[in-house]
Amino acid sequence: MNTKVFADQGMKVQRINVTGWENAIYGMRLPMNSEAQSDSTINLYHEFLLGDKDKNLMIRLAKAGTDHSKVLRMIHVSALVKMPLSWWKQYDTYKISTTAISRSTMHRGIGGQKLTKNDFFVLAPDFFNYSIIDSLNKLQEQMKATEDQEQKRIIWERIIDLIPTSYCQERMLDLNYQVLLNILGSRYQVEKLDKPWNFFCESFLHTCPHLQDLYDAVKHKRSLTTEEFKQQEVK
Fold first, then answer.
1. In the prediction, which pLDDT does 35 show?
2. Stretch 144-156: mean pLDDT, rounded?
3. Do residues 54 and 117 both lie within one domain?
């Protein structure tokens, strides 16, 4: 597991763990009965080292499309991710073959911890009502102090109503390389000012082995920016 922590304005990505390489690469060569041609190895520290031949084949399969790049679905990535609620709503688009475990607002409101400015991603600080942080903290204290379950429920509902979409919620994600490449192609540097998506993507590009090379090979298939889409003539 990589111990590096990526953090920016309340957002955080950490505990990135990549697994499944050995069996994924072995399985990649089964269709052509070419297991003997694999040049990947395991070093003395029991770390998987991707060989040049295997890497070249994996990149060619990735470029050939999702029908041929099943190997990418077998390389799993888990990470602890803290992002704004507004971002999580967009992320739901990419939940195919992924799992997430979150700090539940259903059971714990906002987890019981005292909130600070560092728990929020705010694009325009001059327009953000920071007094909401104090209000949420006071409600949490009230909820802790009362033994009346009905009163706890009422306070909890008030907390849920007040949580702004800039609040950064923490979730443990389970992804794979195919999902990450789809996300990179759809969101990374597509909208230049989309800081949360660029932060999320760069955290994995800087950490996951060979992901940058795979992305470089397929990024010509990226999604259109909003401006490019608007410029297309409707036929």
1. 95
2. 93
3. no
